[in-house]
């Protein structure tokens, strides 16, 4: 069992709070993604788990063992960095063997385990190369093999895909998830990319300004962001400020919108609408439909869809994503066209400001 | 390639050659003149001879000066290595108050004119002698201290540069794989910054070896470094012996540079 427990863990740098009393339980074999913009504390949290940064407060335990005061060398964690961090003066095989050597594994055993680890990341032919002779993706796979060969209790991934190009990133994402699942490794994956987090994680921890904003399985967090920040970070750009009343959602302009099943928030909050939930109409709509009048500002093309930015009379600029004209969508609306932005009463989620 | 671009390239090549010539020409002249058979150094050459090399070797001042310089510079380089390596680690990695000030102080022997540094050291040594009766000026210790001061900034500058250029995650990866601080330094940090350490040692050695001003006050009777032996000789003589000595020095330093570059690409150390 290598359950990781963070108990009121905090990191202060003088007056600056990098991580504020964070408590988190990562189950054995679970992959948890720490997600958030730069400076949110996700990397500091990972570095505290690894032991590179001393926690100002709180306790960290792995499999019931308190590791808070232990140096990184005695935590038995495998770590993969954004910049690969391979030992430049050692061959690929020597890199992978380093952790085994530190553990005084016999030469014969080490050679066998290095071979297995390299085979696992499909680099068995590359043992004699130097890191600089490999591509970025290959270097990152060596780093992964080096971290896995020591059979760590916990695997820590610090933005492991951020230096790779898009196609490779997608492939590595799947590879990491497969390896993690087949080995049943408790894993912490730090990323600023919501797509990486959602596609790999069992649970996402969304962080903002040193605090945990929301925790949950990707589908839940994505489907029901709890705050305006969460909604914005997960790609919901449309936020309408207003008030929940018995009659529905009343915008600051006094316009009333119908709600249906958006959850139990009351009082002042935001209605967060995904661009895909919004439709555009050029003809007037029946009264009482959720519609805001506006004007097309600009259209951007995204292959199977097009996205319009609409300046609404109610205030905010809204993004609406509709099917591309060639694929059965409505004809392109030129800039300046008067439109009605509308959506079903069940669309959107209500979120608090924080 | 259009004509204008070609003209720019040709102009660039001419300027480059002029600059290289400006640097290399005096060296070529010294080497050339060291073979002149003229009794007094003058143009044109009356003939060529290797006599000056033999003469230089036969002169005790040059021979002893060479060995004293060699010995002093080697010890100074080792001192700079022993002091400079930990200092560079602290300066490159540590975040402590006064770090920039300490860095500036350690670099200052590079900026302060050698004659000023040398005379201050001389006065300091005299004060110490006055207080303790311990004679430093004119002894090997005094010379080694002065030359260590010449060597240290070069060592620190080059080692710090390569430490700063090193990806800190590499050391963290080693730590997480089970290596303690000493193992990380020996197995990871030192091999990675090796070009910087070698280049630092080389520049420390060369700059100590060619020093004139700082040594001026600190040599004693029968204890002169090669550069001071050269100055002394030049005062009364003007023949090709100095050319021969200079040529040997140029050859020595060139060989050192070439050997160093084979084992550690010097261009990577800057």
Structural notes for this entry:
The complex is a heterodimer of chains A (354) and B (270). Chain A is an alpha+beta fold and 354 residues long. In chain A, 24% of the residues lie in helices and 34% in strands. Chain A has two domains: 4-223, Rossmann fold, CATH 3.40.50; 242-351, Nucleic acid-binding proteins (OB fold (Dihydrolipoamide Acetyltransferase, E2P)), CATH 2.40.50. Chain A contains eight helices and 20 strands. Chain A has a six-stranded mixed beta sheet, with helices on both faces. In chain A, strands 13-12-11-14-20 form a five-stranded antiparallel beta sheet. Chain A starts with a strand and ends with a strand. With 270 residues, chain B is mainly α. Chain B contains twelve helices and no strands. Chain B starts with a helix and ends in a 7-residue tail after the last helix. In chain B, α1 (3-33) crosses α12 (241-263) and α3 packs antiparallel against α9 (194-209). Helix content of chain B is 76%, strand content 0%. The chains are: A alpha+beta (354), B mainly alpha (270). Chain A binds chain B through residues 50-52, 71-79, 81-83, 85-89, 98-99, 102-103, 143, 146, 150, 156, and chain B through 167, 169-170, 172-180, 183, 187-188, 191-192, 194.
List the helices and strands and how they pair.
The complex is a heterodimer of chains A (354) and B (270).
Chain A lengths: L3 E10 L2 E11 L4 E5 L6 H9 L6 E6 L2 E2 L10 E4 L11 H11 L4 H14 L15 H13 L5 E5 L7 H18 L2 E6 L2 H7 L2 E6 L2 E6 L1 H6 L4 H6 L4 E8 L2 E4 L4 E2 L9 E7 L5 E3 L9 E11 L3 E8 L4 E7 L14 E5 L6 E3 L3
Parallel strand pairs in A: 3-8, 3-9, 6-7, 7-8
Antiparallel strand pairs in A: 1-2, 1-4, 4-5, 9-10, 11-12, 11-14, 12-13, 14-20, 15-19, 16-17, 16-19, 17-18
Helix pairs in contact in A: 2-3, 2-4, 3-4
Chain B lengths: L2 H31 L17 H8 L1 H34 L5 H13 L2 H19 L7 H25 L3 H9 L4 H12 L1 H16 L3 H4 L9 H11 L4 H23 L7
Helix pairs in contact in B: 1-12, 2-12, 3-6, 3-9, 3-11, 4-6, 6-9, 7-8, 9-12
């Amino acid at each position: 069992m290598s359950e990781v427990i963070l108990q009121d863990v905090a990191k202060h740098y003088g007056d600056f709070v990098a991580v504020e009393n964070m408590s988190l339980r990562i189950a054995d074999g679970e992959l948890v993604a720490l997600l958030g913009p730069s400076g949110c504390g996700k990397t500091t949290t990972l570095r505290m788990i690894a032991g590179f940064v001393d926690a100002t407060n709180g306790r960290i335990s792995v499999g019931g063992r308190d590791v808070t005061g232990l140096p990184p060398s005695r935590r038995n964690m495998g770590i993969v960095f954004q910049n690969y961090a391979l030992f430049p003066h050692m061959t690929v095989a020597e890199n992978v063997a380093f952790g085994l050597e530190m553990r005084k594994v016999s030469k014969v055993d080490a050679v066998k385990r290095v071979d297995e680890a390299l085979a696992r990341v499909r680099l068995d032919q590359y043992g004699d190369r130097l890191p600089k002779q490999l591509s970025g993706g290959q270097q990152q796979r060596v780093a992964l093999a080096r971290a896995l060969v020591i059979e760590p209790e916990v695997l820590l991934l610090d933005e492991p895909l951020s230096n790779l190009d898009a196609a490779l990133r997608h492939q590595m994402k799947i590879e990491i998830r497969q390896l993690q699942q087949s080995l049943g490794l408790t894993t912490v994956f730090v990323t600023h990319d919501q797509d990486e987090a959602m596609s790999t994680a069992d649970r996402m921890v969304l962080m903002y300004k040193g605090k945990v904003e929301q925790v949950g399985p990707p589908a839940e967090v994505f489907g029901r962001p709890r705050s305006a920040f969460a909604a914005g970070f997960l790609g919901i750009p449309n936020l309408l400020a207003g008030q929940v009343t018995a009659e529905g959602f009343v915008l600051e302009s006094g316009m009333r919108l119908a709600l249906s099943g958006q959850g139990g928030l009351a009082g002042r909050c935001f209605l967060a609408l995904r661009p895909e939930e919004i439709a555009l109409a050029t003809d007037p709509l029946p009264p009482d439909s959720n519609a805001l009048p506006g004007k097309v500002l600009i259209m951007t093309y995204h292959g199977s869809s097009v996205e319009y930015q609409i300046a609404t009379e109610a205030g905010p600029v809204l993004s609406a994503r509709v099917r591309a004209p060639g694929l059965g969508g409505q004809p392109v609306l030129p800039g300046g066209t008067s439109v009605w932005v509308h959506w079903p009463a069940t669309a959107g989620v209500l979120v608090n400001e924080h | 390639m259009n004509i204008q671009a070609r003209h720019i390239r040709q102009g660039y090549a001419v300027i480059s050659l002029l600059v290289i010539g400006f640097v290399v020409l005096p060296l070529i002249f010294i080497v050339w003149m060291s073979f002149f058979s003229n009794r007094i150094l003058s143009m044109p050459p009356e003939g060529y001879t290797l006599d000056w090399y033999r003469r230089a070797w036969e002169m005790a001042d040059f021979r002893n000066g060479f060995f004293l310089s060699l010995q002093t510079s080697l010890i100074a380089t080792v001192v700079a290595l022993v002091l400079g390596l930990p200092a560079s680690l602290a300066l490159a990695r540590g975040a402590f108050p006064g770090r920039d000030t300490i860095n500036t102080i350690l670099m200052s022997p590079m900026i302060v004119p050698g004659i000023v540094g040398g005379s201050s050291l001389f006065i300091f040594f005299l004060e110490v002698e006055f207080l303790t009766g311990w004679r430093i000026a004119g002894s090997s210790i005094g010379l080694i201290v002065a030359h260590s001061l010449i060597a240290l900034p070069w060592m620190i500058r080059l080692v710090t540069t390569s430490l700063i250029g090193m990806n800190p995650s590499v050391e963290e990866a080693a730590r997480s794989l089970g290596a303690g601080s000493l193992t990380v330094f020996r197995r990871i940090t030192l091999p990675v910054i090796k070009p910087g350490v070698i280049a630092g040692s080389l520049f420390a050695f060369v700059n100590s070896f060619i020093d004139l001003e700082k040594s001026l006050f600190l040599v004693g009777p029968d204890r002169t470094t090669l550069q001071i032996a050269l100055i002394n000789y030049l005062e009364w003589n003007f023949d090709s012996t100095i050319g021969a000595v200079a040529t040997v020095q140029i050859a020595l330093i060139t060989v050192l540079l070439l050997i160093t570059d084979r084992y550690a690409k010097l261009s990577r150390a800057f």
